[in-house]
Amino acid sequence: MKISFTLNKEKVTIDVDPMKRLLDVLREDFNLLGAKESCGEGECGACTVLLNGKPVTSCILNAIHAEGKEVETVEGISKTKLGKLIMDCFDETNAVQCGFCFPGFFVSSYYYVKTDGEKDLMKIKRALSGNICRCTGYEKIFDSVMLACERSN
Ligand code: FES
Ligand code: FES
Q1: Domain 2-73 has what CATH class?
Q2: Which one is predicted more confidently, 97 or 78?
Q3: How remote is the C-alpha of 73 from its chain's centroid?
Q4: How far, in Å, is the centroid of ligand 2 from the Cα of 95?
Q5: Site to substitute for ligand 1 among 38, 51, 62, most atoms within 8 A of C-beta
Q6: I need a surface site. Which of 23, 77, 79, 82 has the fewest CB within 10 A?
């Protein structure tokens, strides 16, 4: 089945099984390897992308869910002005260790800074509650988003 959507601001069409997971479509058909698979059950946030501007876990969505919609991945978001600002904040606060969870945290952080952006620790914790990191104590990640809120205002 042909499925058309916007991917990182470009219109794309692919011939694909409509039930193929969106995560696999991104990784296998578009070679966008930023979104990762960890739990595969919508729990850890490693596969987070934006669908029509909102964070979703792409491991529990299918290709058909993207039809006619806008999908943004870490690769596209990181090229935007705000994405670059957030990337720099993660870098400066040494928030990344193994990096496996990073694309998911980055996408959720971007959504928070873009749609709210208040430098409020509790709100940031809530915004990132769908993302799990097995390496860090989360504090540096929260620090980086606090810094991004400060700099983006
Ligand atoms: S791999 Fe999708 S939420 Fe964990
Ligand atoms: S940095 Fe390793 S899982 Fe988060």
Answers
A1: alpha beta
A2: 78
A3: 6
A4: 9
A5: 38
A6: 79
pLDDT in tens, 105-150: 999 999 999 999 999 999 999 999 999 999 988 999 999 999 999 9
> What pLDDT band is residue 153 in, cutting at 50, 70 and 90?
confident
List pocket residues of ligand 1, CB cut-off 6 Å: 37-40, 42-47, 57, 59
* CATH superfamily for domain 78-152: [2Fe-2S]-binding domain (1.10.150.120)
Domain boundaries along the sequence of the chain: 2-73, 78-152
Q: Percentage of residues in the chain with pLDDT exceeding 70?
A: 100
Q: What is the side-by-side strand order in the sheet with 54-57? A: 10-15, 2-7, 70-72, 48-51, 54-57
CB neighbour list of residue 115: distance below 8 Å, 6 or more residues apart: none
- CB distance 98 to ligand 2 below 6 Å: yes
Distance 138 CA to ligand 2 centre (A): 9
Span 21-35, pLDDT tens digits: 999 999 999 999 999
Give the max Cα distance, the chain: 45
CB 124 within 8 A of CB 150: no
Instruction: Give the mean pLDDT of the chain.
Output: 97
Instruction: Answer yes or no: is the C-beta of 94 below 6 A from any ligand 2 atom.
Output: no
